[in-house]
Amino acid sequence: MPKPIYVLSGPNLNLLGTREPEIYGHQTLDDVRALCEARAKARGFEVVFRQSNHEGELIDWIQEARNEAAALVLNPAGYGHTSVAILDALKMLGIPVVECHLSNPAAREAFRRKTYVSLAATGIVSGFGAASYELAVEAAAGLAR
Ligand code: DQA
After folding, report:
1. Residue 119: how many CA atoms within 13 Å on its side-chain side?
2. First to last CA, the chain
3. Distance 41 CA to ligand 1 centre (A)
4. Residue 73: CB partners within 8 Å, gap ≥ 6?
5. What is the pLDDT of residue 145?
6. N or C end of the chain: which has fewer CB within 10 A?
7. Distance from the CA of 1 to the center of ligand 1, in angstroms?
């Protein structure tokens, strides 16, 4: 059995479904989890799916992924635009990183147009709602082989 794909989500994504649904859609984080698990399973992977509102906890999980994961899908949420510490953790990772966003941050406010995470990501999937996660898992599974 290969190592799992880690799918980590940052702050406020626990409220998916009720949080600004006109931007982020009506699907909940549990719905997203189910999509990720199904897509990963079809590619022969399991998923470790976690969300945190805390920067340090996300960093702990990224560090854990160094030894435990085949690839990482990360929606850093707001921390993507602010966190040098998350970037530094990603730079030590040594496995493929797919950055993922439900919305298309490049088409929104100027401060969302850049993320620190992009500097360490193999690629980015954004703008497809919950399907961004599915596509990101697909990409991560391909990269993990
Ligand atoms: C987001 C986009 C970010 O700009 C925002 O801060 C989020 C969610 C997305 O999934 O579209 O919290 O990462």
Report:
1. 16
2. 12
3. 26
4. 5, 6, 7, 8, 36, 98, 100, 133, 136, 137, 140
5. 76
6. N
7. 32
Mutating to test ligand 1, I would choose from 12, 36, 75 the residue with most ligand atoms within 8 A of its C-beta, which is: 75
CB atoms near residue 115 (< 10 Å) = 25
Query: CA-CA distance, 87 to 99, in Å (whole number)?
Result: 12
CA 130 centroid distance within chain:
11
pLDDT of residue 96: 98
All domains of the chain in start order, with CATH: 5-144 (3.40.50.9100)
Tokens of 106: 């490049």
> Would you state the pLDDT for residue 59?
98
User: DSSP assignment of 42-53, as one string?
Assistant: HTT--EEEEE-S
Residue 49 identity (one-letter amino acid)? F
